[in-house]
Design a protein that fits this description.
The structure is a single chain. With 631 residues, the protein is an alpha/beta fold. The chain has two domains: 3-308 and 388-468, Rossmann fold (3-Layer(aba) Sandwich); 498-625, GMP Synthetase, Chain A, domain 3 (2-Layer Sandwich). The protein is globular, with a radius of gyration of 24 Å. It starts with a helix and ends in a 6-residue tail after the last helix. Bound molecules: coenzyme A (COA) and adenosine monophosphate. Residues 142-143, 167, 169-170, 174, 280-282, 285, 287, 309-311, 333-334, 336-337, 340, 366, 501-504, 534, 569-570, 572 line the site of coenzyme A.
Amino acid sequence: MTKYDEVFRYSLTNAEGFWAEAAKSITWYKPFDKVLDSSNPPFYKWFPGGKLNTCYNAVDRHVENGRGDQVALIYDSPVTGTIKKFTYKELLGRVSAFAGALTAQGVAKGDTVIIYMPMIPEAAIAMLACARIGAIHSVVFGGFAPHELAIRIDHAQPKLLITASGAIEGKKTLAYKPLVDSAIEQSTHEVGKVILFQRDIVTAEMKPGRDFDWTQLEASATPVGCTPVDATDPLYILYTSGTTGMPKGVLRDNGGHAVALYWTMKNLYNINPGEVWWSASDVGWVVGHSYIVYAPLLQGSTTVFYEGKPVGTPDAGAFWRVISQHRVKSLFTAPTAFRAIKKEDPLGEHFAKYDTSSFECLYLAGERTDPDTLHWAEKLLGVPIIDHWWQTETGWAIVGNCRGIEELPVKEGSPTKAMPGYDVRVVNDLGEEVPRGQEGNIVVKLPLPPGTLCTLWRNDERYVKSYMSKFPGYYETSDGGYIDEDGYVYVMGRMDDVINIAGHRLSTGAMEEIIAGHPDVAECAVFGADDQMKGQLPVGLFVVKAGVTRDGEEIKKELVKMVRDTIGPIACFKDACQVARLPKTRSGKILRGTMRSIANNKEYRVPSTIDDPAILSEITEALAKMGYVKK
Ligand code: COA
Ligand code: AMP
């Protein structure tokens, strides 16, 4: 038995023993009464009775234990020409003061706070300050439009909203305040207070009485200590795309989250306290929550906080510059970032200019790593390229290669094996396990390990319905795939209406809801077409109402604008076409999967339930005209 096998088996045969051992790395104010409460499945509770504070574990205790002068966070912002380092001691000063400012504004344990910020250190400070006082943060990604922010405001019902005056997105300067004002206007929940961090790049206009200046509040605040919370108390809500326009509010607890994330830093990523780790993502995504902010700080390592892109800030050598300048040991990003670099610098000429001798490993996730990118990166970097698979819901990897335990051989197209704590199976639609090598639904036997979602915020019912109902006793990942004879898991893609654009998760259902709202549109379908750079891009087909004679191209432009204005630029919805009819089953279900196969030049079987097979040639024709079908 290999070392990995041993650890993995133990994690499943004695889950409580395994996680009790891991929990020793966390400082508890009060020990937990038991490791796992399974009395009310599928609502499992890890470490009930335990009391801790996540911010204390991520910041204070490192100062108390002699790491105060170690750099905790390196802010590297090529877009503003700034590099700034914060030691753990400095971070503690900023976080405790800002937590004091929040307290003075009336935020207390159990209150929700929305954070809508670019990649500046204040975003991490805001998150940690909430954790410090037991408030529940909900970070909303800056690429979402005001409407999406408004949906989250209405659902999370924040006591207060924290934002900044703006961001630099590549070469564009974006003002955030008008977006925030518009979102607050669109929402029905009253946001009583806004704390805004003014940046040099753009100045926001303040609304007297409602808007408060971050810098002034922090300067005059009385620093506060950490509020002990229950292990099972919520730490944050992170909204993620589901199959409809209403996102799912994934809820994370404090105790399980701290234990699991700490455990992954060494065991999965092979990082030790004091080493430099870089996750090139955004705090608005789960990768940013877990691996820009919480996990590296919980462990006492140094996290790089990068406000830039892989290309264009200023060039395709940006990643190598950061690795070299800050002596980064490992980088975590999405394959799309590497495709962007490869496109600009196919020969990797920038790489040769930098001393990257500190660099040991590249971790990829967010979408499938295509073999081309894998091989290109392997050849260029000469370090292991480790794919791993996870979801917003799980907060950390479900399948990966535990380099800190034992590095397993990489198999192309597979993120390797189930992580300790995850009993991963593949089942058919009846819930029966399928033989090795056969594709089906990837599920995880309950209970899920600590750190995974506890429920959906204010929606237990949707939690049960979305994840726990189709295959009782299992968590439904909504990804399809198979497990090979050696136990390697292959993740082939989503089985639902979620698509993955440049490592960002978006809902085609949400886009359809917007398009269907156009006065000329009778019905529509949006599905993901393969894209060389971004993995997938959304494509829309729409049918106009009887009597509409307007130019389809004009309607398309309006639809593109509607989706951009409603969801945001991040939806990348740019392509749509009018068709006479959409293919459907006899019961009226639109055959999106079949259209997706046509657009992606994949073989498909004409569904036996199809109403009129002739429509498929019309769709093929339309998609060919749009440039999707290679004839
Ligand atoms: N705020 C406002 N707008 C944003 C934004 C933000 N934080 N992030 C992206 N956008 C905008 C972009 O400017 C772009 O707008 P445009 O249509 O006006 O050009 C649009 O949203 C689409 O963004 P994106 O899909 O990211 O495309 P891009 O061409 O700007 O960048 C990559 C492409 C590959 C360089 C970029 O997606 C990337 O670095 N991805 C890898 C890392 C990552 O983010 N992973 C996520 C999870 S691990
Ligand atoms: P998100 O919740 O944004 O992290 O997106 C989760 C989805 O991204 C998963 O359900 C998968 O479809 C996809 N995904 C993430 N990582 C991988 C990976 N390594 N391989 C294949 N798909 C992935």
